DNA sequence: TTTATATATTTAAATTTTTCGATGTATTCT
DNA sequence: AGAATACATCGAAAAATTTAAATATATAAA
């Protein structure tokens, strides 16, 4: 998968915030890879709407895969996109 | 080299702008790895002070190594930091 | 040593991002 | 159906970032 430059910008921007980095790290630590939205919110000291906004940016950048489960939402790290981003970065090394 | 989370944030933020991404890509394409500041400026349609500001953010994040050569400045991609950033990202995959 | 050149810094305006309260929507529970 | 729960969206204020003009600094050239 090859990312266009606009997508690389979106991904970088999404990762350029301490709360969003924390969300990514929290989700990666989950056993079955998925993490419930409510559980993320429990671990971050921000208003619910703000957390929703942050998660949205990560989903928009395709760094997270979202899934609805009744009235709950759960998220998973999109490994394919992380890999594609890493590939872009490795190119910067020549 | 292991990056702390604040550093990862700085690097991500630095890469989250189209002009700064363009600068990184331009520099990587140089034959001897170094690129003159004036040459960067020639290829970007922004005020000199703005370009200086952008380069500064890349240097602050340690994505670029700066060197002074008389009244000129030249820059090189810091491969070690890019590698460390890539390592952090790979961890996000579990 | 005056002048020109290359880059950095300062200041301030414009834009974008972050944040939260209020409200909306969809789903589950009673 | 009505109440409660989980999450999303809207609107507005606060904070951070981007931008450029003006100015400063340091080096090279004449």
Task: Please explain how this structure is put together.
- Two copies of one chain form a homodimer.
- Chain A has 94 residues and is of the alpha+beta class.
- Chain A has one domain (5-91): Orthogonal Bundle (Arc Repressor Mutant, subunit A).
- In chain A, 57% of the residues lie in helices and 15% in strands.
- Chain A has helices spanning 5-15, 18-28, 37-42, 48-60, 79-91, and strands at residues 35-36, 64-69, 72-77.
- Chain A has a three-stranded antiparallel beta sheet.
- The longest helix of chain A has 13 residues, at 48-60.
- The radius of gyration of chain A is 14 Å and the shape is globular.
- In chain A, 29% of the residues are buried.
- The interface between A and B is medium-sized, with 28 and 29 residues.
- The first copy, chain A, binds a DNA duplex (30 and 30 nucleotides) through helix 3 and helix 4.
